[in-house]
Records
---
Amino acid sequence: MSRGVPFDVIGVSHYIYWHGSVASLQANINDLAARYGRPIVVAETAYGFTLAADDSEPNIFNSSLQQAGGYPATAQGQADALRAVINAVKAVPNGRGLGVFYWEPTWTAVSGNGWDPANPSSGNGWENQALFDYGDRALPALAVLGTA
């Protein structure tokens, strides 16, 4: 604002296992909306549905991050974590909570399609946070995302 750049929306990233609790997210986005008078989106979030891997690449979401996040690494835990983030955004005063974007909801492990374009066999460190299980079935969190 001090540089006079106009903007319409404020976007924040919030992974509860890295950035803190849903209560801290709520306090932050309420403050931002009140201070700047702009709508808020959570531009990226994700949570694991399992600690198991589906390829050879170590997953970013692991038991330490599960503990930090406070939800179990289960299909229901993933749905509950996402629901909590969505509810925080919906609770922003004056209707300024716009919505939530899920980071890489379809990034499942596919042989020969790794994260590194120079090394197709590099694997995927995010597949346990996708919204589809290792049998390519939609997880409950996908329906929760539809309520955002």
---
Amino acid sequence: MTLLRQAAGALDPARYSVDVVHLGEQPARIADAERTCVRSVPALVIGGLPFHINHGADLAALRA
């Protein structure tokens, strides 16, 4: 999560709205992640496109 927070913090807030979500702590947001085609975490979604940082866990595993 540290790398993800650093990457998100490096984005220009005038250009991008940043919302850091920990799906393990906020499982209600899993559906949001699925709608943006996030397949594994951690991931960044920029402009509606997912960028998978490093494979930590499949999104399906968080539903279990």
---
Amino acid sequence: MALGIRKLLKRAMLTAAFSAATLGIYSYEVEPNWVKTQNYDITTPKWPADMPPLRVAAVSDLHVGSPNATLPKIEKIVERINALNPDVILLAGDFGTMKGEGLVLGGAYVPPEDIAKMLKNLKAPLGVYAVLGNHETYNGAKEMTEALEKVGIRVLDNESVLLEKDGRKFFIAGLEDETSQRPDWNKALKGIDEKSPVIAFMHDPSTFVDMNDKPALAIAGHTHGGQFIPFLVEYFRDPVTRAPGKYLYGHFNENGRELIVTSGIGTCHLPLRLGARPEIVSVTVRPPGKP
């Protein structure tokens, strides 16, 4: 009997070890490189009936320099975004990895100029716009802003830009990151008239808590969709983020306020993903009744 129990225990231990090894390989080698395109179709009365549908491509948390977000990989991401033929492209912060203690395990710091050089190839008729994330706030916000704007990517810090599609005007509004303690919706939406619709984007979805009813849609990143075992995210609450569990990933509609939170591309701290595939977001915003 004792011999039988020992055999069962040994078999169970071997099975557990094999499963752990398989899961480790998958979470390091497979899922971080298994990039999907996540499509959304947002129908909202905040997009006027005479406005044409707007195609938006968005990506967040590139974390270039992390083991699974090398420059060659970002080059392929850029090609995939361009292939979507979006009207406008939004980059929602955390472009690189921090130096020193903030560096992801196994990663390497990549200068802002090298990241911007790769993103320069993004193409959209209405432009490419960016906001900064917490990694830029902690380390090199000025350098990243200068690098992006040098290649034609406008960085929005609590400000908006007026765009036009098929003769109809709308605004893109970008918010400063939550970690800067300066996200300001009033400033970002200042001067926007009542009739013109707004698409807003920010790095941290916590900023959505203070958003008024004006924007037709908000897009954010930061959470990585939980990155590693999303259902355990409550055990790893970021004290900076006011609502990480609530706005972890996906599409949210709160009394007509629309939010999309993307899982991003790269990784932070540990170069692992499990149950949170990296993604490019493709969203079409349209008024009710318009195909």
---
Amino acid sequence: MAQTCFNHEWLVERTDIVPAPEDLTLNGTHAKDLQFATVLYADLDGSTDMVDTYYWWFSAGVYKAYLACAADIIRGEGGVITSYDGDRVMAVFTGANQCVDAVRAAMKITYVVGAVIQPVINTKYPDSGFVLRQTVGVDASSLHAARIGVRGDNDIVWVGRAANWAAKLTALPGRPVRITKAVFDLLAPEFIIHEGAYVWHVREEAALGGGAHVFDTDYIYTME
């Protein structure tokens, strides 16, 4: 099996649609090429401390509420959920307005955490002292998709900068929504300036390599 995985001659098919595992062959060297796609990672912040401090059923409820709300928003903005990994969800956006769609989803997730989930927690568990924190990372680049695993138990691996950087962004310090310059450069004006004020804070981030800039914000997109 390992011998067949290492081959520079791959069957690569271009696509503008996020593939499902069944769109790729499991055995052999078959891949899908998305020449430009946007990846979003939404991640609970401090979930290890939560699990260590609170009852398991409380933590499970937080996971379920956060991931369900995030998933609904992502799908509503045209994103395709590609995986859940513990306390986070990954999604891929394609199309002409993919960066705007992904950032709007990130801002809506931030809004729902503060306006919907946290008030429910405060009402049901007023003495818990629990504050739900989360981060959303968004990057855009070319992506390749390949099918991994074994028959009956397999998934897709996403190869490309955006898949790695979007995840890395969630682990960096800063405001809840973090994006790269590749995403920022494709945003509509209303996502850059609001009521005359610049929405984003920008910094150079060594964790992403020399010269990489991260834009972060606590600006929300309301759903009322």
